[in-house]
Design brief:
With about 170 residues, this protein is of the alpha/beta class. Helices cover about 45% and strands about 15% of the residues. The chain has a single domain, classed as Response regulator (Rossmann fold), CATH 3.40.50.2300. α4 links the parallel β3 (about 65-75) and β4 (about 95-100).
């Protein structure tokens, strides 16, 4: 992406958030069909959407600062969804995360929830449950976008929002 294109993306993101007030939800999923289907669902709810095929792509993007909620696959090539969550926490970024996964170990589910994930959904996931999680995440995002001083995890702040797995 050229510098001019990058500037346009940043300006559009600022316009979308500051003027339109539309929350941006970032979808991080290596499966094209799941990523596009989830994008369609989120857009149908009236939210802005940014999509990424990898956690690394998200972390290197300008959207990281504008995102109000992350929907991420757990198992992806490169950085996993849970590793992404750990990186965001380490960086002081408390953007709420919803995980979706095709195969889930109880240990991974427990780790994600303990670290503050809104929920963990098994593929194929229930769209209504995802919508509930999105609404919960956006409500949480208003107060948790930036970690309080000295807080390195969302564990305490997000404990009341845990909703489990479907």
């Amino acid at each position: 992406m050229s510098e001019a294109e990058r500037c346009l993306v940043v300006l559009f993101s600022l316009f979308r958030i500051l003027i339109l007030g539309v929350p941006v939800i970032s979808i991080i999923e290596d499966d094209d069909s799941v990523r596009e289907a989830t994008k369609g669902l989120v857009r149908s709810l009236g939210y802005g959407v940014a999509t990424f095929a990898s956690a690394e792509g998200f972390l290197q993007s300008n959207e990281i600062n504008d995102t109000e909620c992350v929907i991420s696959d757990v198992q992806m090539p490169g950085l996993s969804g849970v590793e992404l969550q750990s990186q965001l926490i380490a960086d002081g970024n408390c953007t709420p995360i919803i995980f979706i996964t095709a195969s889930l170990e109880e240990r991974t589910r427990a780790r994600a929830l303990k670290a503050g994930a809104i929920g963990v959904l098994s593929k194929p996931f229930n769209e209504e449950r995802l919508i509930e999680y999105i609404h919960t995440a956006l409500a949480a995002s208003k107060t948790l976008k930036v970690a309080p001083p000295g807080m390195t995890t969302r564990q305490g702040a997000m404990a009341h929002l845990h909703t489990g797995i479907v």
